[in-house]
Structures are given as structure tokens and as C-alpha cells.
Amino acid sequence: MTGHELGHVELGRAEVGGVEIAFRRAGSGPPLVLVHGAALDSRSWEPQLVVLADELTVVAWDEPGVGLSSPVPDGFGLADFADALAGLVEHLGLGPVHLAGLSWGGTVVLECYRRHPDLAASLVLVDTYAGWKGSLPADEVRHRVESVRESLAAPPEEFDPTLPGLFSEEPSAEVVALMSEMAADVRPETLALELGIMADADLSEVLPTIAVPTLLVWGEADARSPVDSVARRFAADIPGAELAVIEGAGHMSNLEQPERVNEVVRNFVRRHRTG
After folding, report:
1. Beta 9-16 vs 2-6: how paired, if at all?
2. Which of 78, 96, 236, 261 fits as disulfide partner to 121, beta carbons 3.0 to 4.6 Å?
3. What is the pLDDT of residue 112?
């Protein structure tokens, strides 16, 4: 592993299973590992990485095929993303960890828990899915697949990986700038891979098997993973799960209402501290 300091955030790299994974790390204390959504990277967790590092070891990865990490090998699937995440945690010597995932990242976290249950001290699932197939009506899945395929087929100068309905209202200039920076770095081949995985993934049977404390964080106005049809099913199916509905937030609740999200995550981790 190599790294250097950028302020108090360490930029590191680790080789896991033949894939080089980049990550950002800050703070000390119980470990919280953050898993970003599709068309995003570790920068999407900046408000959490900076603020929660005052009492936690916070790690945000660039998943394989994203950001500063190496491309995904041929045949890479959901299990491989999950195993890479587990491998990074083990490489850093952090487990068991509080494992948090946003949107597509939450699906990766669920698969990681299914394959490596001893790795997780708790789960924090943010505006996510049990895979699209596992959480959405079939016609909605078809619509999303067609929409992303149209975007991927556009000429490079017209390619826009930003999905509609991410925010409850017009985001701040700072968030717009951050989203634009991440969008400029999206690799279409990785987004296409994630599209196929999400469309076929159904991890709904994993939910009742979760045996660690679980926090569900959902934007009240999340149009992509609605509270009533998705979050409340998670809350009903995961034993003992806590649901925190964030007012004034859509699908990117951690960026739209970071203070509130940080508060509920901090309080949850304090009640379920590790290490």
C-alpha cells in the first residue's frame, strides 16, 4: 500500500486480487467504509469523509473500473466487486467494519455481506436497492436499461452519465461542480457493466438473513429508490433495521443533506462501536 497526505485525507492504493484499488482514508477510531454509487467515485463521500473522521477511521474506495483504480478484468461481476471490497478491508486490517453503501454501492455491500458476513460490524444502506430486479417493477427496470443504453450510445461529446431524479431540488453550486467533475471521469465501459449487473440482480433474499445492526438512510423525496416501495420493504425484511428518512433530500441524500446524514450515521455507529 502506498499513500500520501492531502490535508488530513490520505490517498492510498492497494492491490487486491490482481486489481489496483485507490481509496481515500481519514481519521482514527472505529472503521467506517464507504461504497459509492454508479457514475460516482470516492469524492461523492467527501462530506462524510471529512466530518466523520473526527472520531472514526473513514475509508472511501474507488471501486474497480472507477476513478484512480485499475480497469475491471474480463468477466467481472457483482461477486467480484464484493470480493474486491472485502479484500481491501482485509488488506487494510480494518475488519470488522461499519459498511456503508449508496445506491449501486448498497447492492455491492449486500453482496459483500452475503459472501463475507464476518466482515461487517453493521450495515448502513443509503438510498439503495436489492438490485434493480430485486427492488423495482420489471417495466421500470426496462426503462432504466434503455435510458442508460441511449446515453452510452451517444457520441463522446454528448455522453452524460448523470441520471435524472438524483436530487429533490436544484443542488448547490458546490454539489453541481462535484457531480460535473465525477461525471467527466466516468468510464462508459464500467457504467455499462454496472447497468447489466443491476438489471439482473435480485438480493431480496439476503435481507432477512442480515444479522448485524442495520441503518437505512433514505431521502424523503428519493424518486429513484422511493421510500414507500423500497426503503419500507428493506425495513420490514431486515430484522431490527432502523429507518432514518431525510427531509429535503432525494437519491443523493449524503450530498443534499450531509449534516443530517452525518448526524444519523454518527449516532448509529456510536451505539454499535467496534475496535
Report:
1. antiparallel
2. 96
3. 98
Pairing of strands 9-16, 19-26: antiparallel
Nearest to 152 by CA among 122, 117, 187: 187
> What whole-number distance in Å separates Cα of residue 264 and Cα of residue 207?
21
What is residue 255's three-state secondary structure?
A: helix
State the amino acid at position 155 in one-letter form. P
C-alpha 218/C-alpha 8 separation (Å) is 29
CB 254, CB 45: distance < 8 Å: yes
CB 135 within 8 A of CB 129: yes
Please name the residues in contact with 205: beta carbons below 8 A apart, sequence gap of 6 or more: none
Whole-angstrom Cα distance, residue 80 to residue 169? 35
pLDDT, the chain, mean: 93
What is each CA distance from 185 to 62, 68, 160, 162, in whole angstroms?
A: 12, 10, 11, 12
pLDDT digits (tens, 9 = 90+) for 103-126: 999 999 999 999 999 999 999 999
